[in-house]
């Protein structure tokens, strides 16, 4: 049985994952509008991944007999000055999500709630991968640049990231 504090924090995380999906879907739409099909595809797939993260949390809540409560949210930003600015915001958002996961892990460890602690380890590893992924995208943007043909190559590179991620998911 989950404590009230843990139920509240897991509900916050569920809603954060939904907000993340909305953010990435909106960013995908912005990329599509700017004819950045590779980035649009990548971010759309990433939005789906965030919803899968939410569903994993939701199922855990159900398994423990807790009620998941979905809340409202603000509309995500829909305008960005550049692709670099947008991915900088994604990276900062993923760092924030990591912070929230770490707070959940701390709570589970402090209570102690070993089942939830074990469950959250997947999220710890996932967030490490997420931060690494978006930091590497920012590094590539810095390396290649977004002027002239650079933007074309960045879009193509990011589009290939989504294709390789889909291929690796299919192997699981």
Automatic annotation (TrEMBL):
Which InterPro entries does the annotation name?
Ferritin (IPR001519), Ferritin-like (IPR012347), Ferritin-like_diiron (IPR009040), Ferritin-like_SF (IPR009078), Ferritin_DPS_dom (IPR008331), Ferritin_prok (IPR041719)
Q: Which CDD domains match?
A: Nonheme_Ferritin
Q: What GO molecular function annotation could you give as one example from this UniProt entry?
A: ferric iron binding
Localization terms from the record: Cytoplasm
User: What residues does Fe cation bind to?
Assistant: 17, 50, 53, 94, 127
Report the record's Gene Ontology biological process terms: intracellular iron ion homeostasis; iron ion transport
**Main subcellular localisation:** cytoplasm
Question: Which reaction(s) does the protein catalyse, per the Swiss-Prot or TrEMBL entry?
Answer: 4 Fe(2+) + O2 + 6 H2O = 4 iron(III) oxide-hydroxide + 12 H(+)
Top-level EC class as recorded in UniProt: oxidoreductase
User: EC annotation?
Assistant: 1.16.3.2
A cellular-component GO term for this protein: cytosol
Residue span(s) of domain Ferritin-like diiron: 1-145
Q: Which keywords are on file for this protein? A: Cytoplasm, Iron, Iron storage, Metal-binding, Oxidoreductase
Q: Does the keyword tRNA processing apply?
A: no
Per the similarity annotation, which family is this? Belongs to the ferritin family. Prokaryotic subfamily.
What does this gene product do?
Iron-storage protein.
Protein name in UniProt: Ferritin
């Amino acid at each position: 049985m989950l404590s009230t504090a843990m139920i509240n924090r897991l509900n916050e995380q569920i809603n954060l994952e939904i907000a993340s999906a909305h953010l990435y879907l909106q960013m995908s739409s912005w990329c599509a509008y700017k004819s950045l099909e590779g980035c649009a595809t990548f971010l759309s797939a990433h939005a789906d991944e965030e919803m899968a993260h939410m569903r994993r949390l939701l199922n855990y809540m159900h398994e423990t007999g807790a009620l998941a409560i979905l809340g409202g949210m603000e509309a995500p930003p829909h305008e960005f000055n550049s692709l670099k600015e947008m991915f900088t915001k994604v990276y900062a958002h993923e760092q924030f999500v990591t912070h929230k996961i770490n707070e959940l892990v701390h709570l589970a460890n402090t209570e102690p709630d070993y089942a939830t602690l074990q469950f959250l380890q997947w999220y710890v590893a996932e967030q490490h991968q997420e931060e690494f992924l978006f930091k590497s995208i920012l590094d590539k943007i810095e390396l290649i640049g977004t002027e002239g043909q650079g933007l074309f190559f960045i879009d193509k590179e990011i589009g290939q990231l989504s294709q390789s991620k889909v291929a690796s998911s299919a192997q699981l």
